[in-house]
Amino acid sequence: MARDIVIWPHKVLTTSTQPVTDFGPALETLLQEMSEAMAEAKGIGIAANQVGVPLRVAIVGREDGTQFEIVNPQLLSKEGSVKLEEGCLSVPDVWEKCPRVERVKVRYQDKTAQWHELEAEGRLAHVLQHEIDHLDGHVFVDHLSSLKRTLILDRMKKLQKSLARRKEEPSEGKGPKRA
Prior knowledge:
Elements: H1 25-40, E1 45-47, E2 57-61, E3 67-79, E4 82-88, E5 91-100, E6 103-109, E7 115-121, H2 122-135, H3 146-168
Antiparallel strand pairs: 1-2, 2-3, 3-6, 4-5, 6-7
């Protein structure tokens, strides 16, 4: 079952995640739940802290629709600069031009603890940076001007309050009847 996506500025999104040390069934379950949450939200990537789990693991989607996991990733090199339109599952309905680098080299483990190195450019480099930022306790709005960040923060706080109210309300057929 998919986990709920945490909305920024929740503390789990602004704190660095912990390295994965257990590569067993719990990690497999977490990855499945993250994949389902990402699919439900129609995302191209998701980090574990976006579903409330402070572990250094993310799922990265490729443009062809396939995806792969990155566990304990490290950015080894960055080249070039680019500004691309960026959004985030934890900052819903917000899209802004965000400064990133054009090419990255990343070292990471897969779900079986095997190490890999990947050089990426374009959209894949963009998604890798976005997800590794999450794992380091940053969201894309951290790269924006303070004015834009403040306006987005106000919207997200209102959204968090609205979602909290909905959770408190009894759903259809449950709880006391209302006149």
